[in-house]
Amino acid sequence: MSDISLDEASLRILDELQKNAELSNAELAERVGLSASPCWRRVTDLKQSGVLRASVSLVDPLKLGLAVNVFVHVSLKQQDKESLEVFTRAIAQRPEVMECYLMSGEADFMLRVVIEDLIKYQALLLECLTQIPSVASIRSSFALSQVKYTTALPTGHLRRR
Predict the structure, then answer these.
(1) What ranges make up the beta strands (E) of 1-159?
(2) CA within 13 Å, CB half, 23
(3) pTM of the shown model
């Protein structure tokens, strides 16, 4: 848990910036009920403290021809430090791997891969995943449709009741 204290105004700023990071300071200040100068100071503080890490543009994967979302469960032969590091280094190099998590449970890692088609996914399997020496098994699940997708983190638990 972070030791950063966020008051209601800062939480409103986070909520608004997670919806639209392109808001001008004046627009943001108006939406959160602050004047421009205090709003700017709070945003600066949130950036300096690391709460706000980056501002990015979200790109529609279908517009780029990336129609396949695959959730890949990878089990390693052994879970020693070297095997974990070898796997994470190999995966970090792959732009199609959008997310990678070290997991508890049946699989050691879960990846989310966004890729053009099944042929390209098969190539990723054969040329990358199966070539990592510590990989014991790979299970793939293909998303049929996206029911919910958000990048906005919830803030309600931080609000005083």
Answers:
(1) 68-76, 97-102, 109-115, 135-142
(2) 21
(3) 0.88
